[in-house]
Write a structure and sequence with these properties.
The chain is α/β, with parallel strands linked by helices. 39% of the residues lie in helices and 21% in strands. The chain folds into 2 domains: 2-171, HUPs (Rossmann fold, 3-Layer(aba) Sandwich), CATH 3.40.50; 184-274, Pantoate--beta-alanine Ligase, Chain: A,domain 2 (2-Layer Sandwich), CATH 3.30.1300. Helix 7 crosses helix 8 and helix 9 runs antiparallel to helix 10 (218-230).
């Protein structure tokens, strides 16, 4: 596996090989959710490239950029075992060189709702770094997890709007054995916080049961989830919303495919989760 730490090395790797390239962009501290993307890319491309870059521009001023977990040696060992062909580990100066003056922003409800409401600068940081990575690595396909459903929708919109020659591939959420969605931030949780964080998954399962029972009123379901979360002393709800999966427009009456998205602070740790509800007509 090639370890690429400069733009020149990245360019040589891209130019020297043939066939299709599948890119898995990550911020490192890899878990099986990330590795599932690598496996998917491995099955659909001639070469697999993983990027590791903790992007400062997508963190707000009071968020955990400095404390975000990092272990590059461990990450490289995992990627080697999964058969990745290369890992790209650029510096901040490589991604944002002196004089860098461009921001890529998807405007409107797609970035203003859900996580965008409480993290107003987040998605501009995401789209700018992803556009930069696409330009530097020149992949045929790029793989993102459905756990970050809003991010996936935003990146798809950006890629389509800018006519970037990259196929954006969404992949299923991977969960811990107890049902908690895998996240690099799970390591922040104490034992008590981890136990109460399972309420996020319980909320999704509750909604699925209610839909199966015939409930179609999004407001009533939302109130029930709010009540469930409120019973946990260590949880503070950020949002719970029923939205259209592509536009993220709010849904009042459940019909067809509806995305249930939620975010909550577990202690000081902010976690997100979601489920796609298939609502029979």
């Amino acid at each position: 596996m090639d370890v690429l730490v400069t733009l020149d090395a990245m360019d040589r790797w891209t130019s020297s090989g043939g066939g299709s390239v599948g890119l898995v962009p990550t911020m490192g501290f890899l878990h099986d959710g990330h590795l599932s993307l690598v496996r998917r890319a491995r099955g659909e491309n001639d070469r697999v490239l993983v990027s590791i870059f903790v992007n400062p521009t997508q963190f707000g001023p009071s968020e955990d950029f400095e404390d975000y977990p990092r272990d590059t040696d461990r990450d490289c060992a995992l990627l080697l075992a999964e058969g990745a062909d290369a890992v790209f580990i650029p510096s901040v100066e490589d991604i944002y060189p002196a004089g860098f003056a461009t921001s890529v922003t998807v405007s409107g409800p797609l970035t203003e709702r859900l996580c965008g409401a409480s993290r107003p600068t987040h998605f501009a940081g995401v789209t700018t770094v992803v556009a930069r990575l696409f330009g530097v690595t020149r992949p045929d396909r790029a793989y993102f997890g459905q756990k970050d459903a809003q991010q996936l929708a935003v990146i798809r919109r950006m890629t389509a709007d800018l006519a970037l020659p990259v196929e954006v591939v969404g992949c299923p959420i991977v969960r811990e054995p107890d049902g908690l969605a895998m996240s690099s931030r799970n390591v922040y949780l104490s034992n008590d916080e981890r136990a109460q964080a399972l309420t996020l998954r319980e909320s999704l399962l509750l909604a699925q049961r209610r839909v199966t029972a015939g409930i179609r009123d999004a407001s009533a379901l939302r109130d029930e989830i709010v009540g469930l979360v409120a019973r946990q002393a260590l949880l503070r709800l950020d949002y719970v919303e029923f939205v259209h999966g592509e536009t993220l427009d709010p849904v009042d009456t459940l019909s067809g495919q509806v995305l249930l998205a939620l975010a909550a602070f577990v202690g000081r740790t902010r976690l997100i989760d979601n489920a796609t509800l298939q609502v029979d007509e």
